[in-house]
Design a protein that fits this description.
CATH class: Alpha Beta
Number of helices: 3
Largest sheet: 5 strands, mixed
Oligomer: single chain
Strand content: 15-25%
Order of helices and strands: EHEHEEEH
Distance between the termini: 27 Å
Number of strands: 5
Number of domains: 1
Helix content: 10-25%
Structural class: alpha/beta
């Protein structure tokens, strides 16, 4: 939810493998929301999370949605959504709190230390839609 992070951020998007924590945390610093899920989550629900990311509006001229989606081993809940300093645990991708969390925290200058930071031109290759 914040703290130590890599000097280079992760390219925001959907990943089907775990991503480096310190790069994803750098995304949080820039205003991204990171949606993680247990690797054992049913494939249909993982696809719902991917579709959720695709429905989010693009932010500014960057062409990014400022959302990361990736599996994360060892989660305490099937789905954990994080922003800088805040976290939400849900059991279903259909939980309406997920959208409210994104609407509240994504790129919000109230909650993040580096509003306007990039979410592209970093490292990592998200899945293509």
């Amino acid at each position: 939810m914040g703290g130590d992070h890599s000097g280079v951020w992760l390219n925001c998007g959907v990943y089907d493998q775990p991503v480096p924590n310190k790069r994803a945390v750098h995304d949080l610093e820039h205003g991204a929301v990171w949606i993680t899920y247990r690797p054992s989550l049913p494939a249909a629900e993982a696809r719902q999370l991917q579709a959720f990311e695709a429905r989010q509006s693009l932010v500014g001229a960057t062409g990014s949605r400022y959302v990361d989606v990736s599996p994360y081993p060892g989660l305490s809940s099937p789905i954990v959504t994080s922003s800088w300093g805040s976290q939400l645990r849900v059991s279903s991708p259909a939980d309406p709190r997920l959208q409210r969390f994104v609407d509240t925290f994504r790129t919000s200058s109230t909650y993040i230390p580096e509003p306007g930071g990039e979410c592209t031109a970093g490292l990592g290759t998200p899945l293509q839609r």
